[in-house]
Prior knowledge:
By secondary structure, this protein is of the alpha/beta class. Helix content is 44%, strand content 15%. Helix 6 packs across helix 8 and helix 9 (236-252) packs across helix 10.
Amino acid sequence: MAEIWSLRSRTLSLARRPLLMGILNVTPDSFSDGGLYLDASAAIERGLQLAEEGADIIDVGGESTRPGAQPVSPQEELRRVLPVITALAERVSVPLSIDTSKAVVAREALAAGVQIVNDVTALRGDPKMLDVVAEFQPGVCLMHMRGTPQTMQQHAVYQDVVAEVRGFLQERCEALEKAGIPREKLAIDPGLGFAKTPQHNWQIIAGIQRFRELGYPLVVGHSRKRFIREITGEEARRVMEGTLGVSLLLAAAEVDILRVHDVGITRRLLEWLRKEHQSELGT
């Protein structure tokens, strides 16, 4: 299993699993927090809060990828994220990630201090993205998705979702390694909710060890998603409780990185469980 993730100019140790990737959506239409941090000053304050709460990574995104979301231009995406990234890069030591599938956005974000490119298309959405990654050598998170946010739910058809998603991620990693991207730069994300039904999401969680077997850092983004809300209902507290429950399942399975909205309470819960486990072991 992976012990480190090599980023652009630093290395993340994965010894203390799971790390927390805090979500910072600078968008008007993200499914959970759209509009809350569209203003740059509000987004910067939220980023500082995520760092204070114990985020190990802050993932900044300027384009919603929820089902049915409409694309935005590279210029608009940059207008949203670049002031936030620039400010946070100067004020926090936490590595920053850019959640984008556009090469021009990734390039500008990397030049402003970002360490990770988190691409929902696994570097397939923009033919120039590979060149940007090869030039800057950031950490790269490759996610599984079929189609686009506008069409992906039409493609949620699998014979064996775990095997097919795992196979896709393995193929993408091998292709990038052949293209000259070092293995230690790559992380994988099975893409819960992206071209997957709630049942598919639960099957992936149940089979999460199949993804760990590939040996890359494993990122899972489950926070507040519909497959949880369908069980808990839409009330915010219950959605948080459901998300925390899934976080515990993934932590027990030794997933490397959890991508979550609620960093503070997740960190406190994981630390409490770690102390309880150490107490039981007498250490």
